[in-house]
Amino acid sequence: MNILVFKTRIEDNKQVRKLSVHMRNIEGVVRWNVDLYDSDKVLRIEAENLSPHSIENRLQEAGYYCVELED
Predict the structure, then answer these.
(1) Which of 13, 45, 64, 71 has minimal CB crowding within 10 Å?
(2) Which residues face 5 on adjacent strands?
(3) Quick check: 65 and 5 in contact, CB under 8 A?
(4) What is the residue range of 29's domain?
(5) 16 pairs with which residues across the strands?
(6) What angle is formed at CA 26 by the lines to CA 46 and CA 42, rounded to 5 degrees?
(7) Cβ-contact 53, 66 below 8 angstroms
(8) What is the rounded distance in angstroms from the CA atom of residue 23 to the CA atom of residue 6?
(9) Order of strands, edge to edge, in the sheet holding 42-47?
(10) What is the pLDDT along the chain (71 residues), one digit of tens a residue?
């Protein structure tokens, strides 16, 4: 299992609910959450066999700003 961490521009729970529709459609995502209190609005994903690049592409295609945070 991999933990992937991304910077987003998700601002509120309404946007998190909209994001959930897209997250459900990404095979390999086990769990995810958005830290709305962090300045980077961090999206943390527990996933199997998914690359950060594939997540970025899927979410950017859906209209979300999403960039991997490096260690």
Answers:
(1) 71
(2) 44
(3) no
(4) 2-68
(5) none
(6) 45
(7) no
(8) 14
(9) 29-35, 42-47, 2-8, 66-68
(10) 899 999 999 999 999 999 999 999 999 999 999 999 999 999 999 999 999 999 999 999 999 999 999 87
pTM beyond 0.90, yes or no: yes
Pair of tokens at residue 1: 């299992």
Question: Cα–Cα–Cα angle for 37, 35, 60, nearest 5°?
Answer: 120
- Name residue 39's amino acid: S
Structure tokens given for 28: 């390999």
pLDDT of 63 reads 95
For 21, the 3-state DSSP assignment is helix
User: How many structural domains does the chain have?
Assistant: 1
pLDDT at position 70 is 84
CATH number of the domain bearing residue 22: 3.30.70.100
